[in-house]
Every structure is written in C-alpha cells, then in structure tokens.
C-alpha cells in the first residue's frame, strides 16, 4: 500500500526542488567565475614573481609566466574539486577530511600566491615605507652625533673659565698679592704656563665649531634629498639606487661628526694639565722668599689638580654619552618589504588573500544548500521526487527493456519441413 505524503513533506519537497533549480542556474557560470578569479590571481602572481627575478630576459619571462599559469590552474582545480565534493559528502568523517584538506590547500595557496599578490598590489608602497623608516633612523643618528659634538663644543666654556682663573692668579702674582713677591717669578711662570696650555686647547675647540656646523648642514641636505626620493614618482628600483648612494654619503657625514667631538681631546688634556708641570727654579732673593714661592706653587698645583679633575669629569661625561646607532641602509625587494611591513598594508594583504580564498565561501554556501536540499527530500519516497523528464526517461527505459525480451504468449514457431525426396522418372527405371 502506497504511503500518503504529508503536507510538511510536500512543502519540503517543493523547497528542495526550488533550491535545485537555483543550484542548476548557478552551476551554469560557476566554472567561469572560478576561472576569472584564478586568472586574476595568476596575473598578480606574475607581477610579484617578476619583481623577484633579477634578470629581464626571455628565460625569466617564461619562468614567471609558467609559475603564474601553474598557480591559476592549481587554484581552479582545487576549488572545483571542493565545490563538487564537499557539499556532496554526507558522513561526518568525510566532511572533516575534506575540510582539513581545504585548510591545507588554502595555506598552500597563500604560500605560493597570496604573498606575491600582495607584493604586486603594495610592493612599491612597502619599499617606500622601508625608505622612510631608514630616513628616520639616519635622522636620529645624525641628530645624536650632532648633539654629542655640540655638547663637546660646550667644554670650551669650561676650559675658558679654568684658563681665566689662572690668568687672574698670574696677575695677582705679578702685583705681589699671591706669594708676597711682586714680579714675574717662578709662581707667575707656572701660572702662565698652564694658562697658555688652556688657551691652546680652547683655540682647538673653537676651530672645530665651523666644521661641526658644516657637517650637520650637509647631513640635513642629504636627508632632504633622501626624503624626496621616498615620495617622488618613478620606478622604485631606480629611486632605491639613488637612495643607497645618498645613504652612503650620510653615513660618512655621521662618522665625521663623531670624529669632530673634542671631548676625548679635552679629557686627555685635563689629565696632562696636572701631570705635566715644568717647575721653574725658585728665584726668591731670600730663603724666606723661596719658602713662600714653594708654598704658593704647591697651592697652585693643588688647585690645578682640582680644576683638571673637574674638567676631565665633564669631558668623560660627554665621552660616555650613548653614541648614535649604527644605521646601514639595506636594499629590499618588494616581496620582502610587504612581509616586513605587513601591519602597515593590511588592506592589500586582505585583498591578496581574498582573491585566492573567496571560493571557500562558495564551497560553504553550496554545502549548506545541498544539506537543505537533502533535508527537504528526507522522508519522501523516490516516486515523489521524480521530475517529468526523469519519469519520461524511466518509461522509455522500460519500453526498451520490454522490446528486448521475448514475449511468453507468442505461439511456437512451426518446425522446418523436410525437403521432398527426388524420385527417378519412369523412363529412368530399369526394366
């Protein structure tokens, strides 16, 4: 007895047939859409591969074309397989296996194509970002080197203050207010000796000031040219070459600024200031006068040691300042730049990955739709799901089978009659 179809089953069947109609219409252009996506990905992959190849000959061209074609074919075949098989399987194990395969394939597509697509989309901008970062590093190093050099020039004021103190003491000694003996005796000569040494050191420091200013101005001019190269139009490869040349010049300027610092010179001079004292012969006329000179010279030497130590500590403080960081410009390819500065180009990375993995969304849509179709047909007999075309095909198949089989009611064929014997004529009989 045939089971009667319920209203819910009939509605589910109509729902399933409606979805099947939509799926049939979508299948008519799905392959073409996959082909377009795969071709677009292959084109951007070709641009990315071309940026990595050093040569521009025929072999490099064919190598890039071959790689991009392989990527396009691989993407098309991979998603075609999944779009057909994943929605069709019904067991949980099969679905998990195909889902894991889709994850592995997607990772392979990203590894062989998406990063090259990102290099084609944002490679030039990523290299410009690298140039801008390098300019910032060079600017920091230049300013630090100039800061150390200018701080060292400030030691000139300390040297001048110490020199002036010895000049004042010498004038006091000349009038007899220091040792009690007026004139230019032994104490006066010691004081003038050290004031002359400090005057010479002060002149050396002052002579470095124009060199420091010129080097800093030259460094800023080079930085301006480097900044212009990061934003001006034109191929990024040519600009990178010019940028590298300017970077070499700027490195030389930074090294020159470091060498122009007079802090090490002042530190050594401060050590020599108290260590190398040429003591003149005491020229007092009386023993009491010579004792006074000796006492004054001892006091001067003690004062000299204190001032020299103060000057040395100031110079060592500048010598101990953190030096500018070693900045070396390293040329970088567009693909490497996109990876290094990936956080700055998230939209480009998203577009590069989406063009390869967008079919995954279509696979999930098809899987959900096929599950809905199966759900609508569940509980309905096969005879209820036959379409008119399928019914006609079934009837024709039955007729063909019926015609091919012999009918049981047909009468048996009559047996074959034996051929009559040929008898001889009477005339042929023997008498």
Please mark out the parts with pLDDT under 50 across 5 or more consecutive residues, or reply none: 416-431
Major sheet details: none
N- to C-terminal separation?
86 Å
Q: Which CATH class of the largest domain applies here?
A: Mainly Alpha
Please state the overall shape, judged from the principal axes of the Cα atoms: rod-shaped
What structural class do you assign from the helix and strand content?
A: mainly alpha
Mean pLDDT value: 78
Number of strands: 0
Strand and helix order: HHHHHHHHHHHH
Number of domains: 2
CATH architectural name of the largest domain: Up-down Bundle
What can you tell me about this protein's structure?
It is rod-shaped and about 160 Å long. Helix content is 77%, strand content 0%. Helix 1 (7-52) packs antiparallel against helix 2 (58-85) and helix 3 (92-153) runs parallel beside helix 6. It contains twelve helices and no strands. The longest helix is centred in the N-terminal third of the chain and has 62 residues, at 92-153. With 431 residues, it is mainly alpha-helical. It folds into two domains: 7-123 and 344-391, no CATH class; 125-333, Up-down Bundle (Ferritin). The chain crosses the membrane at residues 23-47, 59-82, 94-116, 349-368.
Descriptive labels:
77% helix; Ferritin; 2 domains; mainly alpha; 12 helices; rod-shaped; 431 residues
